[in-house]
Amino acid sequence: MELNINYIINSLGSLLPEVAVTLALVLIVIVDLIMGKNKSLLPYISIAGILVAGYFVIDQFGMNGFALAVDGGKGMIVVDSFGAFFKTIIVFTSIVVVLFSLSSKEIIENSDRHGEYYTLIFGMILGMFFMVSATDFILLYLAIELLSLSSYVLAGFAKNTMRNAEASLKYIIYGGVSSGIMLFGISIIFGITGSTNLYEINSLMQAPQFQGLVGLLAGILIFVGIGFKISAAPFHFWTPDVYEGAPITITAYLSIASKAAGFALLIRFIKITFIDSINLQGYWTLVNVIDWQSFLILISILTMTLGNFAALWQNNLKRMLAYSSIAHAGYLLLGLAVLSNQGIIAILIYFAVYAFMNLGAFFIVMLIANKIGSEDMDDYDGLGFTSPLIGVSLTIFLVSLTGLPPTAGFIGKLYIFFALVDANMIVVALIALANSVVSLYYYIRVVKHMYLTRPNSQTVAVVPNIANTVLLMVLLLPIVILGLYFSPLVELAKTSVALFGF
Amino acid sequence: MENNFLISLLLLIPLIGGFIVIILPKNNLNFIRYFGLFISAAAFVVSMLIFFGFNSAVSDFQFVEKYSWIKNLNISYTVGLDGMSLLLIVLTTFITPLTLISSWSSIQKKVKEFTFFMLMLEVGMLGVFASLDLFLFYIFWEAMLIPMYFIIGIWGGEKRIYATVKFFIYTMFGSLLMLVAIIWLAVYASSALGHFSTDLVELYTAAPTIATEIQNYMFLAFAFSFAIKVPLFPLHTWLPDAHVQAPTAGSVILAGVLLKMGTYGLVRFCLPLFPEASIHFAPLMSVLAIIGIIYGALVAMVQTDMKKLVAYSSVAHLGFVVLGIFAMTEESIQGAIIQMVNHGLSTGALFLLVGFIYERTHTREIADYGGIAKIVPIFSFALMFASLSSIGLPGLNGFIGEFLILLGTFKSPVLDSWWYAVFAASGVIFAAVYLLWMYQRVVFGEVKNQKLYELKDLNKREIFILVPIFVFVVWIGIYPGTFLNISKASTKKVVEQVITPDVLGIK
User: Fold this and answer.
1) Which residues of chain B neighbour A491 with C-beta distances below 8 Å?
2) Phi and psi based region of residue A274 (left: phi greater than 0; alpha: psi -120 to 50; beta: remaining)
């Protein structure tokens, strides 16, 4: 394979978001060096950098093509609306997380290392951007590693607490093992096909070598690596510890952006690599190597059940939200398990909504933790009455996470159920339904502590400042509005569903 | 037509009013209370406009408003009324102001929040009765859970948290099942209609064409959800807890209106959408209803807590309603509709009375009372009146409903056996036993508890709440035609939708 420099230069036009992120990363490192002890500029440079990247991402809606393609061959990257949709979520989440960082006590206390903090966030963004659009195993693996390495460090950023160090270490160990397993899977596929490109592998999939154990093994090994990123059971064990131990801004980031990138990758991997044909109703027929449908249903049921039931016993809100995010990964996987564009639309809608509600929930937990230094549910007693804004907002976020109307979370669930019913997977829908009921219990437990338990003498008032109130509204209003009028989001998801080539 | 905005107006008044309540100053309790009353009274006035503008000769939906909402799923904001829903809407707007007045003395803390939640609850209830789109219906149905959760949870009794969580989880399970069923139904119907739709009128024609086996499953999903709400035996266990722990106003709304949403759902959705399945499951539902009647009455008999007694009596009364619905004759469904209203009035009055006396003595134990007839004559009379209405004394409202239901059940071609009516009729006798026995222990006999001598009789406000209820109790009892006429045409239509000649042929 000869790679001419011209191909790269020609592709730069399609890589503008990634270029912008890289430049911003470099700029942050330089400014950090020049400015010495004064770190106050960094967050604003970060936001500016993300906004520029965001501008180019919006441009990518409607584009369709390869980048970094060798002459006549398939590219390592595709630029399509599907990728743009996920990149938009990543961009939005990144901006919000940087804004969170401005008022997070954990982050402010470690201001001497802000240069590293923002640099690594950009490392994560870059990794995620590539994960979303990579169609080549090598690039895909590098992207995952870039994301992982940056997030290992960030998980341990506050390093002065035990749980922080524990989080980072656990994350590295789990991450290292699962990426090794994934690499093994990739090597098997490369061994059989001699290619690392998903599109090329797809055309070679029918080969007899793939039948039987080999194909199955390779597919599942690769799934392990991705499953780790989206914290699907049984690869979720790191999630609660890391989410609880990491600074809350990073927890929020991991639970949304990193998960979104993982899902984008998973969808691309399964659809492009294994697809055989798409019928008129939009259902996919996959190459008969692995029974992905059964496999995904199994994993998703396992994931949501484990997540929901484990969340029932949690007293620490961060840990509870960690388990809840595992459960949400389960619902999202169902959207993929349907193996239809209908299901992918559901995933896109769900993710857009999930970003708002999960960010919102973490934001409020952070604001409360800033004030009272605890994420324990028992410390929330009576908070709803001393701090009405915080209480009402958290209630709405949690109701939305449960999936009750008239909030946006309901729309997410609605479309997942819709896809399942449309595919005649009624029993699976019923299992998901039972899971939702379980989740109701732990979500309203928080509401119970805030409103139904009588306030004790230690209950303090948490009043966000104006900037944080505005940010809160930015996260809250879409939850309410999308709950009642979701046509635009659905339309956007519909136009974003097509992967390049299909 | 100018009439065409009335239902939306009816929904908007409490909705906007509720949000205005939020911004009112927190400390001026009386202003908040009067404002809440004003809003709910305004809603009542609008419902009266609808009531008098309603043409009872027409069986179709009236006052229909339809606005496209979610275009890509063909979901629209469609509201409208027929005779059945009109009665329940008027019941809702009638009961809500009264319960708000009743809360003036019992709710002393967080009045603002309470008024807000009550008004939101009213929006939800009205929306449920007025929706002609399944999706819209579901939104109202679910959205109503949250205010009720807080009403029980914040202002309730000692075990309020347990009760409210149980209530929430129970109903949530049922309603999610309904959500899946709604989607399933809409997906199936889309092959008959040619497009995805949740419009009730469209589904009325499309749904009965679905294969019987699938219909059975869909019916079960819907019926399960409604049965939890009713509550039908054996899904009733949340009810005593919720009722007993809820504040008086919450209990009245719960018994008066919320439970009716379940029975209303059965008659509005289950029967016309799945006629074959409804007929198939009618014996099962009827048997469960009769078990509910007898079980509820027997359990009520042994209660030592007045509120619990009234709560269990609800299980029995709603059993009658379900029986009436699944007997599927015009008389029985008419009876079921009027019995829904009756139960709202008489059980509402009983809860109010229990609440009034609880405020004075802080006990609901029957054993703590006795001989209060001479001390509080007005209260004793009112309790007598409400109990007799609940028992079904001829001349009062309860009799009409139960009589029609039993009559319809005897004649029912679907149930086709008079044993149903015989067993159900025993419930009437039991009702007399537990209510009169309770009355005897509370009101007659010797005064054992010296504190009771300090008991004050009902004050003007409390009498003011009860009088309108009692007026309707007598009105329905003596001249039910006013109300039966309203629901007549639409009941007839439901029966025609279900009992078609070929359906009976299948049976």
Assistant:
1) 72
2) alpha
Question: Is the CB of A452 less than 8 angstroms away from the CB of B153?
Answer: yes
Q: Are residues B230 and B334 in the same domain?
A: no
B38 & B2 share domain? yes
Residue of A nearest to B75 (CA): A487
Residue B240 and residue B308 in contact, taking contact as beta carbons nearer than 8 Å: yes
Q: How many domains are contained in chain B?
A: 2
d(CA A165, CA A171): 10
How far apart, in whole angstroms, are the C-alpha atoms of residue A176 and residue A159?
A: 20
**Residue A350 binned pLDDT confidence (cut-offs 50, 70, 90):** very high
> Which of A308, A404, A481 best probes binding to B when mutated, by most B CB atoms within 10 angstroms?
A404
Contact A405 B139 (CB under 8 A): yes
pTM to 2 decimals?
A: 0.90
Which pLDDT belongs to residue B414?
Answer: 76
Check CB contact under 8 Å for B160 and A410. Answer: no
Collect all residues from A whose CB is shorter than 8 A from any CB in B. 385, 399, 404-406, 410, 414, 417-418, 421-422, 426, 429-430, 433-434, 436-437, 440-441, 444, 447-448, 451-453, 485-487, 490-491, 494
Predicted confidence (pLDDT) per residue in B19-71, tens digit: 888 888 878 888 888 888 888 888 888 888 888 888 878 778 888 888 888 77
Which residue from B72, B160, B217 is facing A490, i.e. has the nearest CB?
A: B72
Q: State which of B235, B251, B268 marks the end of a domain.
A: B268
Asked if B285 and B254 sit in the same domain, the reply is: no
Same domain, B346 and B302: yes
pLDDT single digits (tens) B289-302: 889 888 888 888 88
Task: Give A-chain residues touching B146 at CB under 8 angstroms.
Answer: 399, 404
Residue in chain B lying closest to A382 (CA): B154
Asked whether the beta carbons of A480 and A360 are under 8 A apart, the reply is: no
Question: How many residues does this entry show for chain B?
Answer: 507
Count of alpha carbons within 13 angstroms of residue A424, beta-carbon side: 4
Q: Which of B215, B235, B268 is the C-terminal boundary of a domain?
A: B268
Alpha-carbon Rg for chain A, nearest whole angstrom, is 22
